[in-house]
Amino acid sequence: MADLEETVEFVRQIHERGLENASMPEVARGVGFSHASSTPFARKIAAARHFGFLGSRRAELTGLAREYLRPTEEGADRKALRTAIYSVGEYVKLIEQYDNKRINQAMLTNWFARNFSLQNPAASICARSFVQSLKFAGLISGDEVLHSAGGSEAGVPGQKAQDELDPIALESKNGGAGEQRFVLPLDRNGSRKFTVISPAIFMRNVRS
């Protein structure tokens, strides 16, 4: 019942305020809640764990959270968001159901109400969180259509990530002619890939 964007901000506060090894009451007070049993606080903690940003019984950040907050390579933060989305099993079911379709908020509300035995107000919050999360991760485009292409490794909605579609010019180790790289995802979440690296002149001949 908390979306990905607000969860990221919540985790950022935990990290920046040095609360990762604190007790839950200390964490709650440190991020602005009166006590750890506060419903909004509990929702944020639960969301952070569902998205894979908190792993321990306390508030220690996972590698995924650190990859987003302090990326070490280009696009790592974007990939971390996609991985977070695909960490939620029920989200994956909805993504598969609505792939390349326009999002219907009323239908989503019905889905959450039916699958989790929720009243409409609670189901509506879950539906809103789902939509906002996917928008933040770049899986829902401006026309409200869901695009799952590439899974957790995807790029901008409606496009393939550049390194999965277009050749990228790279400098060779000996400083000679450039190379080109082509990456073919072998599974939905992008964890298995087939990569071809070859001299640029060879790829131009292949294309011609």
Folded structure, characterized:
- The protein is mainly α and 208 residues long.
- The chain folds into 3 domains: 4-69, Arc Repressor Mutant, subunit A; 76-150; 167-207, no CATH class.
- The protein is built from 10 helices and 3 strands.
- The protein has helices at 4-16, 24-30, 39-50, 63-69, 76-85, 89-98, 105-116, 120-136, 162-165, 200-207; strands at residues 168-170, 179-185, 193-199.
- The protein has a 3-stranded antiparallel β-sheet.
- The longest helix has 17 residues, at 120-136.
- 31% of the residues are buried.
Summarize it.
This protein has helices at 4-16, 24-30, 39-50, 63-69, 76-85, 89-98, 105-116, 120-136, 162-165, 200-207, and strands at 168-170, 179-185, 193-199. 31% of the residues are buried. It is mostly helical.
CA radius of gyration is 20 Å
- Biggest sheet statistics: 3 strands, antiparallel
User: How much of the polypeptide forms β-strand, as a percent range?
Assistant: 5-15%
Number of strands: 3
Structural class: mainly alpha
Major β-sheet strand ordering: 1-2-3
Ends: how far apart? 52 Å
Q: Please tell me the total number of domains.
A: 3
- Write the element-wise H/E pattern from the N-terminal end onward: HHHHHHHHHEEEH
Number of helices: 10
